[in-house]
Design a protein that fits this description.
The complex is a heterodimer of chains A (476) and B (1050). With 476 residues, chain A is mainly alpha-helical. Chain A has 19 helices and six strands. Chain A has a domain of 325 residues: Serine Threonine Protein Phosphatase 5, Tetratricopeptide repeat. In chain A, α2 packs parallel to α6, α8 crosses α13 and α13 runs antiparallel to α16. The longest helix of chain A has 23 residues. With 1050 residues, chain B is mainly beta. The chains are: A mainly alpha (476), B mainly beta (1050).
Chain lengths: 476, 1050
């Protein structure tokens, strides 16, 4: 009897094992750890968090000598050649692309509309996507664009020509700005609070500045796009400035606060080149931009000099007022828009008065840095170095823009490359194999290792993958 | 005590033993082995009769026989002895081992013991005493060099961690861990109590592991623990005490101290910023205290202000001599005493066996205030009722408590939870050579602020890049407690002599708690303090049923098994960390988080159901054929593809059975096999989900994952071909086992890195075909065996393994296995090329000579091959010498070839710490003098036109600017030869022991890690302890242990 029971038990156990084999395990393979349904508002917030990073990435700020290294005199000597854009593709770009898709597909658009009208979400995502793509192409030149972000649809995207990318960016900004409608306000917009009017101005201003990038390589197109953008309405005051605001908490703190205070590293200080120039023109913005050193003097960190003979205490760090834990950073400002118009006027692209626009731009910049006084401004622009001279207008505009763009690192570098002003002396003993200031970033290592055919093709068409091959708009 | 019988054999003999007949004479006696140990279970038969007896647990026997009869003493592994009964009443016997008779029983899949000659695949087994000689508590270290085809991915014992092993090649970056099965229960390598290990079998290829199915693709380590034997009652005590110390350190320079420039700075008093009483300091020599490098002034003994002279306490304002401290790093490390104690009780009767064991291991770290305590408790019980129903209960409890387990790797990397690397990441990478370790010991100021050698400057005495290493170890502490309970409960029913069935429930359950602190005012977490904790609960259940049939029909033997298994895994994790600092310094709790704390919880669940069976046929002990079939159903695969069936087939012929017996070739077998193994994937890799991130204020964030899931995933299928030849010579005194294998991994599921411009960094795909080929050779010999008791045995293991990507996926040809690290270094598996190709910045060569540019620096090309990481071959050489009561074991292992990158070497030089960065150049001038004064370094190279290089370069510029991230410069051969273990033992003589009722006693002198005989990388690095197969990441130094071990059997 006992034997029988045991036999039955064994057989039953084996049978139960066997019969349970064919089932589908129910919902066991559905992750309880991450949502299966997306929330496009949260995805937008996630993507927007990268705007701060795009603006404040320090490297181009070192190239244009706004900043210099304090201890490790490496990046100001162009140590890094290959830079990584992967975080933008497999990050905000893909997420923005996803927002567009969720708001487009018939199956998902009604759900997505819970956090803002489909059209408005798409418009914001398109503007931002174009913003990030411009940021990338300005740095790397030809990049994956038309075949990018297709996931399994294309693991080997080709590199598009910058010219083609720019053409598409104008279209994207234009169409996106026109796409806004009066529907539900987009949620999760930590940049402009879903304000349609501000988004339109942002998109148009991006277009204008992008149009000016073509001043040397394709002035005809630049002129047309610029005029169209101006007509659509640019930022009209400092109140319109697009700023990315950090928060008083560790996960979203200002990068310089993090570097100076949280980690106590103090890796970067304001460069001697910049401090010296501001001192030279008695610029009232200096105290808003730089701190005094331990001896109470404004002293920029000697730029690109190795080995260092100073310590952090001996040089001017970026001003405490601009790098509180929750200080904002400028994404696109009224001053930039005015400088762009001043240059466009000087180039004859638009009808305005270059001098007036130039001075308005300086005023806007001083206001933006909180140091404007009517008296100080008048004295400032009366100085021979600053006073508008038509013959030197492009250089003056570029130089003043260089000041105004402090800590808008990538934009400052792009404008410097385009105009060549102010004339900067390269670091001593560069570490990247060259002798000049870099004009491009080399592709990340993943390009040759994971997308070799297309990488080889772009090297053939664009030129060597180094820091001296110029991007398309950067024409000599 | 040494026993050379196997348990099943003993049991069989017990069953066969026959009760005594009443007879005319009673003979008693004792049977011992050649080494003096007692032999229980020896069979004694009376020739020509069916009478017999067996020895009891003390080796005593009693038998009644007619006068003049012949007694035959036989025991597995020993030569039979015959004695004619004369007039004596007491006959003591000493049995001598018989190599020719030795039947090798090995444990195979599902714990089934098989005669090794019946197996058609490579299985290498080692007995417990061979792996515990030096009492290394880690299985992996203890296995180094002992099994052909096993590679240890080690780590410094200073971290108390558990090294991993790879079987048949490191051909997977993430996975590849073998399955560890202890008495049938799958568990983790860290849960193996070496003192409980009876034997350990390594099942290498799919033929051997077929019955383990989809999780055995990395091979299986089958561990059988000790159990009580029938008729024995014994208490074993095994204790070792070791003195641990640092094994080796890089060679440092002692000529230059901290700073970036050799020019002295002097203190310049400025009344506007300095206190008035600092006026007297004006003009004193000061260093750049913020520098964490040693390119500073030449060490000349002159009075200077150390960093500590600007911090509170009696040293403030003091001038101290600027002097060399050659032993400063060495002096940091402790020389602690560690203890490892095991007590085991075992008793067995006819129908029960019970063994309980307790092990307590206290390992005190060489890094101050670090410690690990480990307890193992196990009980192994077996009760047989009604003759044929056996109940088994095995329970193992393990508790591992780590206190301040140090972090290593690059710089001050680490985290709140596991601590920051403030020790070796500083000493070998970012340090000043003139620092006195006594000064670092005083790490805290009277007012509670922290001191450091690395401060902002005289007016800014806050830690800059580094705390004192003691701050990390005594204030920013961490702890971890890992408790685990695993075992099984099973019933086995013997239906008949040939058929048995069993049902077993197994569980492995773990609770892991970890917490870490960052003290307020120390370097990390913004100086605001931090706290984090992490809890993981996991369990694995296995329910299995097995029917086993074993019968010989005439000349045909049949062994067959059929069974099923349900596996369920659950992992739950909870993690919390403060953010933005602690609101109340010293209060380490999540409630003290200044900002919204980071909190996460996760749950992972999976199930695999399986049915399997195998049949082995043997004809006349000459031909063996085996086949198996298994089907798995995995919850983690897409429903359409979640069932997968895979077979295995193997055959072997014992050639010596076909040959006439001869004195040269004692045994020869050829074998070949084919097997498939299916594999699944981890949970939740099929469907798209979205990642939640840190909120931005009140706005939640969400992201697409960067790993692209794959709803069409198929199970991976690995096909393996294996062939081998086993031979023994000269009465089995010499032997070789040779195996060739090839694995065709088809549809292997990998998280393939893809160009992130596609929007994803990785995609889960079924890779086309990855092929692995290898050779394994095991040579064993007993070259010396003298009548006077001297014996020498050795084992040599050698293996070579090569993997190749034949086909990856459409349009994709490169599987980037790792990197980029140090800017440009990656390790790759490229279609058509060897797996593990290092690619990065390479120094250009011309006819084998390195090429320099006009400035005298190397010309460097990017994206060049730096060689494969796979060793040319590797292996071990194990020696065992015995002379009467003395024994000596010497174990060495080695690797030849295979490239790796050394982070330690690079930064040791970068920061001016390495000996190579100082000293004299070939002109006899200090290298660090400027080139203009005859200093500098002349690189051994040619110019682009092939002429010898004559351009000297500045030393600091060379190491800091040019050699940093120059991957080629810091890439080396892994080649090493390591003397890993030495154990000199002495068995105390019986005569001494019998009076104190001790069955056996052994005392040994043990050494672990005594000597790195040869190392290609040099520089004080032990690459045998590398955690990854392609980089040395800045590791803690090896630990060398000397000690005594005492083994007692009562």
């Amino acid at each position: 009897m006992k034997k029988y029971i045991l036999n039955t038990f064994i057989v039953a156990a084996l049978l139960s094992a066997a019969t349970s084999c064919g089932d589908n395990f129910g919902t066991m393979n559905i992750s309880p750890n991450s949502p299966s349904n997306p929330n496009t508002a949260s995805i937008l917030t996630g993507a927007l968090r990268n705007v701060g990073a795009a603006v404040t990435g320090i490297q181009p700020g070192l190239y244009v000598q706004h900043f210099g290294d304090v201890t490790y005199i490496e990046e100001s000597r162009y140590k890094t050649v290959n830079f990584d854009y992967n975080g933008f593709y497999a990050g905000p770009l893909m997420n923005l692309q996803f927002i567009i898709q969720q708001n487009t597909d018939a199956a998902t658009k009604s759900n997505a509309a819970a956090t803002g009208s489909n059209a408005n979400q798409i418009a914001i995502a398109r503007i931002l996507k174009a913003y990030f793509f411009q940021f990338l192409t300005d740095r790397w030149g030809d990049i994956a664009y038309s075949e990018a972000l297709k996931a399994a649809g294309d693991f080997n995207p080709k590199f598009d020509k910058q010219q083609d990318i720019y053409t598409d960016l104008f279209k994207e900004w234009k169409e996106a700005a026109a796409q806004f409608e009066g529907g539900k306000t987009v949620q999760g917009d930590i940049l402009l609070g879903g304000n349609i009017a501000r988004w339109k101005k942002f998109a148009n201003s991006l277009r204008a500045i992008a149009a000016l990038r073509l001043s040397k390589v394709d002035p005809a197109k630049g002129k047309a796009e610029f005029a169209a953008a101006v007509a659509d309405g640019l930022l009209a005051s400092n109140a319109d400035n697009v700023k990315y605001g950090y928060l008083s908490e560790a996960n979203n703190e200002h990068p310089l606060y993090n570097n100076y205070i949280t980690t106590n590293r103090k890796d970067f200080a304001v460069a001697s080149t910049f401090v010296d120039y501001l001192n030279k023109v008695n610029d009232p913005r200096l105290p808003a931009i730089a701190d005094k050193n331990i001896n109470g003097a404004y002293r920029g960190v000697p730029y690109g000099v190795f080995p260092p003979t100073w310590k952090a205490q001996d040089v001017s760090l970026a001003a405490a007022t601009m790098r509180q834990q929750n200080s904002p950073v400028n994404v696109l400002t009224y001053a930039q828009v005015l400088f762009a118009q001043a240059e466009a006027a000087q180039l004859g692209w638009i009808s305005g008065n270059a001098k007036t626009l130039y001075e308005a731009a300086i005023k806007a910049s001083m206001e933006q840095w909180g140091v404007y006084t009517a008296d100080g401004f008048d004295k400032y622009i009366a100085q021979p170095e600053v006073a508008f001279t038509s013959a030197k207008a492009i250089e003056q505009i570029a130089t003043q823009r260089w000041i105004a763009l402090f800590y808008q690192n990538s934009e400052a570098w792009a404008e410097w490359r385009r105009t060549g002003f102010p004339v900067l002396k390269p670091a001593e003993k560069p570490l990247n194999g060259g002798t000049e200031i870099p004009r491009r970033m080399a592709y990340p290592t993943t390009a040759p290792t994971l997308n070799k055919t297309n990488y080889d093709a772009v090297v053939t068409s664009q030129g060597a993958d180094n820091q001296y091959t110029r991007v398309w708009w950067d024409k000599k | 005590m040494k026993r050379r019988f196997t348990l099943p054999a003993a049991v069989i003999m017990l069953l066969c033993s026959i009760s005594l007949f009443a007879q005319d004479r009673t003979i008693t006696g004792k049977v011992i082995a050649d080494d003096g140990s007692l032999l229980p279970g020896v069979s004694i038969t009376v020739r020509g009769t069916t009478r017999g007896a067996t020895t009891d647990s003390d080796g005593n026997y009693k038998i009644a026989v007619p006068a003049g009869s012949q007694l035959v003493f036989s025991f597995i592994g020993f030569a039979n002895q015959e004695v004619t009964v004369g007039t004596q009443n007491v006959i003591d016997i000493r049995l001598m081992p018989d190599a020719t008779q030795l039947q090798e029983v090995v444990v195979t899949a599902l714990g089934i013991s098989r005669d090794k000659k019946a197996l058609n695949y490579s299985v290498q087994e080692i007995k417990g005493d061979k792996i515990t000689a030096a009492r290394d508590p880690n299985v992996a270290n203890a296995l180094a060099g002992k099994i052909a085809g096993v590679q240890v991915l080690g780590q410094s014992a200073a971290k108390f961690g558990t090294p991993n092993i790879r079987i048949r090649g490191v051909n997977s970056l993430t996975g590849g861990d073998p399955l560890y099965v202890v008495d049938g229960t799958p568990t983790d390598i860290s849960q193996v109590n070496m003192d409980d290990v009876e034997s350990l079998s390594v099942l290498k290829g799919p033929s051997a592991t077929a019955l383990y199915g989809n999780r055995a693709s990395g091979g299986v380590v089958v561990i059988t623990t000790k159990k009580a034997k029938s008729g024995e009652a014994k208490l074993d005590i095994n204790h070792s005490t070791t003195l641990d110390m640092i094994g080796m350190l890089p060679k440092y320079q002692n000529e230059y101290g901290g700073g970036y420039s050799q020019d002295w700075e002097t203190f310049s008093f400025n009344p506007a910023i300095h206190p008035a009483d600092w006026k007297s300091f004006d003009g004193q020599k000061i260093l750049d205290y913020s520098a964490d490098e040693s390119w500073g002034p030449k060490i000349d003994g002159s009075p200077h202000r150390s960093a500590f002279s600007w911090q509170q306490g009696p040293e403030f304002g003091q001038l101290t001599p600027y002097s060399a401290q050659p032993n400063n790093v060495r002096d940091f490390f402790n020389k602690p005493i560690s203890n490892n104690t095991n007590v085991a009780f075992s008793k067995g009767g006819e129908n029960f066996q019970s063994r309980v064991s307790y092990t307590h291991i206290i390992t005190n770290g060489i890094i101050p205030n670090s410690k690990q305590t480990k307890d193992f408790i196990s009980a192994k019980n077996s009760i047989t009722l009604l003759k044929n129903l056996t109940a088994n209960l095995n329970i193992n409890y393990t508790s591992t408590r780590g206190t301040n387990v140090p972090a290593d790797n690059y710089g001050s990397s680490g985290g709140v939870l596991g601590g920051f690397n403030q020790t070796i990441g500083s000493f070998n990478q970012w340090f000043q050579r003139q620092l006195r370790i006594e000064d670092l010991k005083n790490y805290k100021n009277p007012d509670g602020t922290f001191r450091s050698w690395n401060i902002g400057g005289p007016l800014d005495p806050k830690p800059k890049y580094w705390d004192s290493p003691y701050t990390q170890m005594y204030e920013s502490t961490n702890s971890r407690l890992d408790t685990r309970l695993f075992g099984d409960f099973g019933l086995t029913y013997q239906f008949s002599k040939y058929l048995k069935g069993s049902v077993i429930a197994r569980r492995d359950q773990r609770q892991y708690n970890q917490e870490g602190r960052v003290a307020y005012g120390t370097l990390n977490a913004g100086g605001l303090g931090a706290f984090a904790n992490y809890v993981e609960n996991s369990r694995e259940n296995n329910y299995e049923g097995l029917l086993s049939f074993d019968k010989t029909f005439g000349e045909l033997s049949v062994v067959a098994n059929a069974g099923g298994n349900i596996r369920y895994n659950l992992v739950e994790t909870f993690g919390q960390a403060t953010s933005g600092g602690l609101t109340s310094p010293g209060f380490y709790n999540i409630a003290a988080s200044k900002d919204r704390p980071a909190i996460s919880n996760n749950r992972f669940e999976r199930r695999v159901n399986s049915l399997y069976g195998n049949v082995s046929l043997g004809y006349k002990d000459i031909v063996f054929v085996e086949a198996s079939l298994r089907n798995d159903w995995s919850s983690t695969l897409p429903v359409a593809n979640n069932s997968y069936l895979y077979p295995s087939l193997s055959g072997g012929v014992i050639l010596t059975e076909l040959l006439p017996r001869n004195p040269i070739l004692s045994y020869a077998k050829v074998r070949a096999g084919y097997a498939q193994v299916g594999t699944d994937v981890g949970p939740y890799q099929i469907f798209q989900t979205y990642t939640t991130g840190n909120a931005f204020g009140s706005n939640a964030t969400q992201y697409l994952p960067t790993l692209l899931p794959n709803a069409d995933l198929k199970p991976g299928l690995s096909s393996s071909y294996e062939a081998g030849l086993d031979m023994k010579f000269m009465n089995n005194r010499f032997g070789v086992e040779f195996t060739w294998y090839q694995n065709d991994n088809k549809n292997q599921i990998i998280p393939l890195p893809v160009d992130p411009t596609s929007g994803y960094r990785n995609a889960i795909i079924n890779a086309g075909l990855i092929q692995t080929k290898g050779l394994e050779l095991h040579i064993f010999a007993n070259p010396v065996k003298s009548d006077r008791g001297f014996n020498w045995d050795f084992d040599i293991n050698l293996d070579r393994n090569r993997s190749k990507v034949i086909k990856l996926a459409d349009g994709l040809t490169n599987y980037q296995l790792g990197g980029p690290t140090w800017r440009t270094l990656t390790v790759n598996a490229r279609e058509g090329e060897d797996w593990g190709l290092l690619v990065g910045k390479k120094i250009r060569t011309l006819d084998g000579k390195r090429v320099v540019d006009a400035n005298g620096f190397y010309i460097v090309d990017d994206q060049k091959s730096l060689g494969s990481v796979l060793p040319t071959f590797k292996g071990g050489f194990l020696n065992s010498f015995t002379y009467r009561n003395l024994s000596l074991r010497i174990n060495t292992d080695f690797i030849v070839g295979g490239r790796f990158f050394s982070t330690t070497r690079m930064f040791n030089a970068y920061a001016g710490l390495a000996a190579e960065t100082a000293g004299l150049n070939e002109l006899g001038n200090p290298k660090r003098d400027p080139v203009s004064k005859g200093g500098g370094v002349l690189l051994d190279a040619v110019t682009e036109d092939g002429k010898p290089n004559t351009t000297r370069v500045e030393t600091q510029e060379l190491y800091e600017d040019k050699f940093f991230a120059l991957n080629d410069q810091w890439t080396y051969d892994q080649t090493y030869v390591k003397l890993r273990e030495v154990a000199l033992g002495y068995n105390l003589p019986k005569s001494l022991l019998s009076r104190v009722k001790v069955k056996s006693a052994n005392i040994s002198f043990i050494v672990r890690n005594p000597l790195l005989i040869y190392s290609a990388v040099g520089g004080g690095l032990d690459i045998s302890e590398s955690e990854t197969f392609w980089t040395e990441g800045g590791q803690l130094p090896p630990v060398r242990s000397f000690g005594l071990n005492l083994r007692l059997s009562l």
